[in-house]
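Recap from last week: sequence in, structure out.
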Amino acid sequence: MGRLRYLTAGESHGRALVAILEGLPAGLPVSVKAIEDELVRRRHGYGRGPRMKIEKDALEIVSGVRGGSSLGSPIAITINNTEWDKWRHVMPVEDRPAGKELTRPRPGHADLVGMLKYDFQDARNVLERASARETAARVAIGSLAKALLMELGIEILSHVVQIGGVFSHRSTLPDASDAEAIDASPVRCLDPEASNEMVAAIDAAQAEGDSLGGVVELVALGLPPGVGSHVHWDRKLDGRIAGALMAVPAIKGVEFGDAFAIAGKRGSEAHDEIEADLSRGTERAGGVEGGMTIGGRLRVRAAMKPLSTLKKRLRTVDMRTGEPAEAFQERTDACAVPAAGVVCEAVLALVLADAVLEMFGGDTMDDLKAAHSRYLGRIRGRMTP
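Predicted structure tokens:
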């Protein structure tokens, strides 16, 4: 078991989301504004629906922080639903729900399988928890993981490299100085020409009642060699990252480095050769070998399918009558790929922070930073020709 453990609770239109994060060392500076800023980033992005324009994330830290610093005890965060008064009759805890039952499950969503698994007649009992709204809770606690990593000089960025059939042609990876420019793009893409084409593609899909998916690329900077482990399957860092990213709603594929391209090449063309100073001249592996970081830059991509709630309704079956029908529709986005990048940053930060704490230990930030510094000194000694 790793050092960090977290749990989220809450439904999309329920009273609140709740997140509990356990395992942060004492003495980590905690800023409510920094968490709120991350939640704002998650709400933005071209193609988002009307809910993002009216919804605010009413954040409150209810435990684990005092005087602006973590205490080493579990941190609990609530994000209240500012539209709760409009939905309390649909999502009551004790009274009979007053909302209309949703009996026509949407293809591509958790609706049908959840209805079968839990013997529900109403898809709302499934979709409220399966909704990507839950990711706001992960972004909130992921911001704390980011803060811990920053104390060790480790930064995480994401940018969009594909939406629909439009690809970014930027050949260089972003670094920390590009963060502001990425978020300034309506689709979080650093290629201005591709960004304009992505916006046009989203407009075209939206006009037809359809949706678009895409690919986000994540870059972690400043990682030392050896984070993760080769000794057992569940400690391999790339496996842990892949599992966390695949648990983000609508993510259907994960790639480290040039994995899919090098699958069609010979080994002599696929691997990152080792230089005299133990660095690598290429980055085809994405910064991970044998379940451990190589050191420096980690690169991973996540592919997001088009969203499954559509104005252009797909065929389904009415579970009440057994008759063919059209899927129901709630408020929806035409594209959430830019926001998915922010969510993926958060879950990557949680995995990396867990692995770093597992490697270096420490009940206080001072202890953690001291162990990290000693390790870096030892590694530099080995890597100096």
